[in-house]
Amino acid sequence: MSIGVIMEADFEEIESERSWQRAFFNIKISSLKHDYTTEEAKKVENRPLNRYRDVHPYDHSRVVLLRSESDYINANIVPVKRAGREYILTQGPLPETLSQFWLMVWEQNTKGIVMLNKLIEKNLLKCHKYWPDKDNLEMNFESVALAVSFVSESAKDSYICRTFRLVDGETGNGREVFQFHYMNWPDFGVPQSPDDFLDFLSDVRRSGCLESHCGPAIVHCSAGIGRSGTFCLVDSILQMIEHNHLHESEINLREVLLEMRRYRMSLVQAPEQLRFSYLAIIEALRRRDGRSPYLSRKKDEDAPPPPPHRARPVMAMKTVVNYTEDSSSEDDVNEHDVGIDEERNANGNDAIGREPPEELEGGDEVLKIVTNSGESPADSACASADASESDSDSESDSGPPPLPPKDIPMGELSGTQPQREPPQSPLPTDRVLPNLSEDLHSFEKEILAKEWMRDESITLPGGNQTPNFDQEMLIRKRLHEQKIQQKVQAIKKGVKDAEAANDRRTLFENIGIGVVVFLGAGILLYRIIDYVRS
Known about the structure:
Blueprint: H1 3-17, H2 20-30, H3 39-42, E1 75-80, E2 85-90, H4 98-107, E3 112-115, E4 120-121, E5 124-125, E6 138-141, E7 146-155, E8 159-168, E9 174-182, H5 194-206, E10 217-220, H6 226-242, H7 253-260, H8 271-289, H9 294-302, H10 335-346, H11 377-383, H12 410-414, H13 442-454, H14 469-533
Parallel strand pairs: 2-10, 3-9, 3-10
Antiparallel strand pairs: 1-2, 4-5, 6-7, 7-8, 8-9
Helix pairs in contact: 1-8, 2-8, 5-8, 5-11, 6-8, 13-14
């Protein structure tokens, strides 16, 4: 049995059980045992250099700058040894970190930069523009003695290939650096279809910037964990399968992801991104083997048969189906991150919407490293993309279907009343609160901690048990309820403040009217007295 078939079987099992949330949650819980420090990121002088307040590089794998006033940059080296890959995952540069970013490119001997986000997303600045263009041909960074100049640019439907020349002012040496900018990947989401993503990955690979003979490629989105982690996961798995020829029993996507999370926190940030990773790998392997696309096959299999011909009309039947959608089914996008972006934008600075707190490719030659003679690697890579790609703004028939809904309680399916939860008992004081990893965000930590204190069957950080799916749903439901309660309280406070302001305004208006009436009466009385006297 080939690895592609095994991967499809694993995908279909999770898909049929509608358990992507559960699979992602289990990965997140398993990552809690990683007790790595992030002391450098928390230093007072380094805090302004972090785009998001809860996305920090681990100390043991962080990139250390050599010839800068500060050796800190929010970036980690992530090796995947079985794939022969090494990546640098980092946040989108801030205005304060542009020079450090290019110094990292120079010192790490990086040949390629993979950018997976737009500069502005949802009206928020998610990354500062760090490269020169046709209108601004050169950028100089005197603090690190580096200069970057624009060479060329080739635009495709969903991505842009750029070439720069990076020159060291101290030695006069220079080299070309390629940037591959993919623009169809929404934050916390996934591309519409694996097809153009696979074409993008194919171009990146053909440039040679992912190969071991040059320095690690730099991969970034806004926070450098969601989209960046998904890209590296897909590329690593495909590299293991197609070039290292590992046996299917040796490759487990979830194990590879957990290994990558040992070097940078929170890689692959949402259940949809985990699902897309599977789907992109499956489609790439089908391309390689000359099989039909997985999504089109599923569409044909799932299509219902045509209705039989009827000689007479069918009597109308009324069917009532009650379906209650779990309030916890919404994506857990961290609202406090948006607040940070808005705060920094309001101050006129670059958005620090710390993306958690954070987002495959190839044609028939997706996994072949080919460089045409007479062309630079970047030019040959860009020229290979299919010029007939569909418009990224239109709906694609081959796009992945939305993430299936969560499991419906058995009580809803059978028509019986689901069992009610027992009343909450006070938090016991004899349980020791575990030291939760930074892999969870502050609000989630609070909820998980409360559940830990209430339910002794939950063992989060290092025990043999993990929360089951019902407990996970309970946690998410309470998290959602608390968010709603906070919004309700904020609305009530706003109404109360508005009423108080209106009362003050009414009081001042009444006082003003009284003063005017008093003065008018006084003037009238004075004139009457003066008239009588005269």
